[in-house]
Design goal:
65 residues; mainly alpha; 2 domains; 4 helices
Amino acid sequence: MIGNNIFKAIGEFCQTVLFQPYNDLRSLDNWWVQNTISWIFITITFIAFFYWLGELKKYKKAGNE
């Protein structure tokens, strides 16, 4: 019984606190504003990916395989 309450509390915390900014964005009428966060995450992912590829190239060039 207590374990079930813990999971319910975690679920309620996620829905009411952690995902509240996404719920606020979802209620907007403008598609571009709603998807701004997605574009930001996509940009960060591409930057991190190309940085990682550059580091791999430096690592391989140094003779470490």
